[in-house]
Amino acid sequence: MVGVLLLLLLLPFLLYIAAPQIRSMLSSGVCTSTIQLPGKVAVVTGANTGIGKETAKELARRGARVYLACRDVQKGELVAREIQMMTGNQQVLVRKLDLADTKSIRAFAKRFLEEEKHLHILINNAGVMMCPYSKTADGFEMHMGVNHLGHFLLTHLLLEKLKESAPSRVVNVSSLAHHLGRIHFHNLQGEKFYQSGLAYCHSKLANILFTQELARRLKGSGITVYSVHPGTVNSELVRHSALMRWIWWIFSFFIKTPQQGAQTSLYCALTEGLEVLSGNHFSDCHVAWVSAQARNETVARRLWDVSCDLLGIPVDWLMMAAGPKRSLK
Ligand SMILES: NC(=O)c1ccc[n+]([C@@H]2O[C@H](COP(=O)([O-])OP(=O)(O)OC[C@H]3O[C@@H](n4cnc5c(N)ncnc54)[C@H](OP(=O)(O)O)[C@@H]3O)[C@@H](O)[C@H]2O)c1
């Protein structure tokens, strides 16, 4: 009896001691590519904190010119200076990008296209989770608007530059949470029913469907596309939910650090020979299983068309070689 009590008392201490080992067991998957990136240009959205910051830092360490696309330029500048100091790479630049406003996305793209000749790596990383019901400047539900539609428009606007710079890559940061997602076309903006946790899952499913459809349409173009689950990562993502903040705090010793969380994005952006796996979903630097709806090509095509319609983009901006023209009806 005394032994059991003693064990219970010691348990938190033992867990604390074992935390680094447990964390490394849970965070397998390291980008081992040694590729260097002098002369390469990368854009990372949401790069002022969390996984995006660590992704940008590693790309800068390898010599790329890295654009931190952030909604808060001041936060971005502080991080750019930190990355410059840590990596010795001065070509870390901050540009304003608010994915909750299509005007801001268009302004970002316009400036980028004017000032840059190339774009080799686009990391669509920024994300929001469990926001109370709210809408973007264009009236889209916040999760769908920022996580999916914002990145859809950004990719559309930067695509010619990616094509000119081929071989080039797009990495869409999704989540394991997509398994709980569904694309409800009759309620895409959450106006009929809304649950903040599920809204996040739906948007992360949209990231995977977009990845697959984009990869299909870009076959043979020299641009390849990947979606990733970064793992469960100790970041600011849970800021909108007190319960999730509490759970993250309790488990913070065991879950991935942002640097560990960046590994799969880096793996997909950098690993040589990965082109044949364009369109796949990755977790811990391996191809990962996705939900049934995430594999549904009909849903992916319809989401593509609806996204174009919402954003005012011609549906056929990127037709598959032999793809038929479709109407939205
Ligand atoms: N953390 C996890 O366990 C986990 C698990 C699965 C997937 N993910 C995915 O990983 C990605 C990165 O998340 P994280 O964990 O690093 O979270 P984070 O620390 O909260 O970082 C999110 C980034 O997105 C930016 N952002 C939010 N709304 C934006 C907007 N409207 N326009 C431009 N940028 C915006 C944030 O900028 P501000 O700082 O200005 O808000 C921040 O830089 C997300 O796509 C997330 O869904 C994370």
From TrEMBL:
Q: What Gene3D superfamilies does this protein's entry cite? A: NAD(P)-binding Rossmann-like Domain
Q: Which reaction does it catalyse?
A: all-trans-retinol + NADP(+) = all-trans-retinal + NADPH + H(+)
| A biological-process GO annotation | visual perception
Presence of keyword Hydrolase: no
Enzyme Commission identifier(s): 1.1.1.300
Q: Which GO terms describe its molecular function?
A: aldehyde dehydrogenase (NADP+) activity; all-trans-retinol dehydrogenase (NADP+) activity
Q: What class of enzyme is it?
A: oxidoreductase
Task: State the pathway, as annotated in the record.
Answer: Cofactor metabolism; retinol metabolism
Q: Return the GO cellular component terms, semicolon-separated.
A: endoplasmic reticulum membrane; photoreceptor inner segment
Question: Keyword annotations for this protein?
Answer: Lipid metabolism, NADP, Oxidoreductase, Signal
Q: Which Pfam families match?
A: adh_short
Signal peptide (from-to): 1-19
Q: State if NADP is listed as a keyword.
A: yes
Parts of the chain that traverse the membrane: none
Q: Which InterPro entries is this protein grouped with?
A: NAD(P)-bd_dom_sf, SDR_fam
What domain of life? Eukaryota
The family classification in the record reads: Belongs to the short-chain dehydrogenases/reductases (SDR) family.
This protein is called what? NADP-retinol dehydrogenase
- What gene is this protein a product of? RDH11
